[in-house]
Design brief:
Number of strands: 12
Distance between the termini: 47 Å
Helix content: 25-40%
Shape: globular
CATH architecture of the largest domain: 2-Layer Sandwich
Radius of gyration: 17 Å
CATH topology of the largest domain: BirA Bifunctional Protein, domain 2
Strand order of the largest sheet: 1-2-3-7-6-5-4
Structural class: alpha+beta
Number of helices: 5
Number of domains: 2
Largest sheet: 7 strands, mixed
CATH class of the largest domain: Alpha Beta
């Protein structure tokens, strides 16, 4: 891929009006953050890389993909601080929709993974920069594994174009619509789950999904629902016993 090919493949819209492309990058998110802070990147600017050499997930775990695509999208949403975790849902839902366009069915796993039969196929990461009125800007990073996709030379372009279109749609939707859509596709909802918490501890109960501010809920035996923001979640697992 190259920048001109990417720009030509994107549908007209707000996201993707500015594009930078790299064959190899340390990480797309580091470039996007630098673009935002030092060069004043606008809403919808996108950094794309064919390969990253230091990709990390939400908790700094290494992400490696033999055949992949990485993209970071700069957004300037109108979100209050207490709803910044919804950006993770925007990202997961957009990535799920994008994967569907290339024939891959993935399930979102809160707060950052896209799974096929419990195997990670992609990661999402949301980094928010706060201002006096709420979320001033955010960098949403997407890492796709496209191993096994029937590739006629432009599957990555199709994936990227679909991602930006789907993300633009989700960013315009009200919080209730986002939480309801996520519940439709989250396989954990209604099942037993164990949330490993940060810095320590765990909660076990029935997963009820995310609410309108992006907090993940777990219902105990009494019916009381504990809501956890993303920064308090280490991982969400199915119980082994």
């Amino acid at each position: 891929m190259d920048r001109d090919t990417i720009v030509g493949a994107l549908r007209p819209g707000v996201l993707g009006r500015e594009v930078e492309h790299y064959q190899v990058a340390l990480t797309t998110e580091s470039i996007a953050l630098g673009w935002l802070r030092q060069r004043g990147a606008g809403h919808g600017a996108v950094v794309v890389a064919d390969r990253e050499i230091a990709a990390r997930g939400r908790r700094f775990e290494e992400w490696t993909s033999v055949d992949g695509l990485a993209a970071s999208v700069i957004v300037k949403p109108e979100l209050p601080v207490d709803r910044q975790d919804l950006l993770w849902a925007h990202g997961l839902l957009a990535a799920r929709a994008a994967y569907a366009t290339v024939g891959i069915r993935v399930a979102p796993h809160w707060p950052e993974a896209l799974l096929v039969n419990d195997t990670p196929m992609g990661l999402v990461k949301a980094e928010s920069q706060l201002g006096p009125r709420g979320v001033a800007s955010a960098v949403l990073t997407f890492r796709f594994d496209v191993t096994g996709v029937d590739d006629d030379g432009d599957s990555r372009l199709v994936l990227l174009a679909a991602l930006l279109e789907a993300l633009e749609v989700r960013l315009a939707q009200p919080p209730q619509a986002i939480s309801e859509e996520f519940a439709e596709h989250d396989p954990l909802v209604g099942t037993q789950a164990v949330v490993q918490m940060l810095p320590r501890g765990s909660i076990r109960g029935t997963a009820v999904g995310i609410d309108n501010i992006g907090a993940f809920g777990v219902a105990g035996t009494s019916g009381h629902v504990t809501r956890l923001p993303v920064d308090q979640i280490r991982s969400i697992e199915r119980p082994h016993d």
